[in-house]
Amino acid sequence: MLNLSTIDALQQIVGKKNIITDIDILNLYSCDGLRLQSSQPGCVVIPNSTEAVSAIVKCCVKYNTPFVARGSGTGLSGGATSNGGVIIQLSRLNQILEIDISNRLAIIQPGVINAHLSLETMADGLHFAPDPSSQTASTIGGNLAENSGGPHTLKYGVTTNHILGFTMVMPNGNIEKFGSKHRYGTDLDLVGFITGSEGTLGIVTEIIVNLVANPQTTRTFLLTFDSVSHATDCVSAIIKGGVIPSALEMIDNLCIQAVEGKLKVGFPIHAAAILLVELDGDASSTQWETKQLKTITAQFTRHSIEEAKDEVHRQQLWRGRKLAIGAMGFLAPAFYTNDGVVPRHQLTNILEDIYRIGKDHKLKVANLCHAGDGNIHPIILYDPKISGHKDRAFSCSTDILKCCLEYGGSLTGEHGIGTEKVNLMDTMFTSTQLNLMMELREVFDLHSLCNPNKILPTHAGCGEVRNYVH
Length: 470
Hints:
Largest sheet: 8 strands, antiparallel
Strand content: 15-25%
Helix content: 25-40%
Structural class: alpha+beta
Low-confidence stretches: 459-470
Radius of gyration: 22 Å
Oligomer: single chain
Mean pLDDT: 95
Number of helices: 15
Distance between the termini: 20 Å
CATH architecture of the largest domain: 2-Layer Sandwich
């Protein structure tokens, strides 16, 4: 619990109606999309300006109180939670401040929903490229914090490739600006350093984002396979054949069953796996890529390639992919979404290991992947009412992530480390590397109050890093 002096001081900044201390409501902020872990904050404060955020942070520093920024709470690694501290809820900082068509950029507040920005710029032939599956709910501020990707990452890059600059409230409450509208700076790239830092280096309150021209032509294909290995082998062959799809997604049979049971979008129910492949660009390039795609695919499947008939059909296929994780409720009362990365040529091996690990833990695992860039999303199905199921789901995910590291991959592709994977950081990095990261973090956050206990194992001092305990 926060002391009354802290709460009174925060009320002076935002007003009594903009601070939440009711226990029942605070329970709603006890977790993000990662339901396996929870911790109740001391209070939630709702500012409406950069200056208010600055004042809140200075107040927290004065009373030695931890704080964390929060957007829509769609994150999947426990990053937007606080154990007894202050959550700074940024949902009211949700304005598109400027759209600069000639320079293909926009200035927005962090609470702008990802998909809303592209809706605003669609008529001008532009869009915001990062497209996480949660884009109809997640905020761009949250995307920046996690360095989110999405299906179109393969061609267009992740969030950091589309951030030009931002205004940030530092952990001491000072307001600083990083980057600018100009795309080529000569100073230290702190924009790239801060993007993806999961809210541990400060609180971003305005963002300058890059906008991408809408493609002249978009062609979307559904490829059907009789085995998962044929699908994953085909992924590498497509890239090797000179085709760079804007999106290259894999969905396995268990995931198909959930999608068709819940959404009925027309995925082939008996397929072992499908690839959803999207090509875009000018007409001549997409025509050549389509021809190459058909030639390559024929080496891995006996099924004919299916192209979306029209925009309605295309959106229907993408609806099946974007809502696939949510459809898992059709198969199980609960599920846990993993987020690892392997080199693309290791996709076949990691999928084989995932199915084996699931069997070892006596749990079903559905798989969908941003296959083109090796970002896997195994979905571990479990029943929280069955004793031990929850712990087995977490252990299953841990074993999968360790396999990713063995194949030269990473613990996370776009969901972040948060609290979920912090206990695995010392399997990926040496103590020297972890201490260097902590020293860099302390340059920004001397008092260790800005989203503490996230990403890095708890620092025990003088060259020693100890594991964070859940």
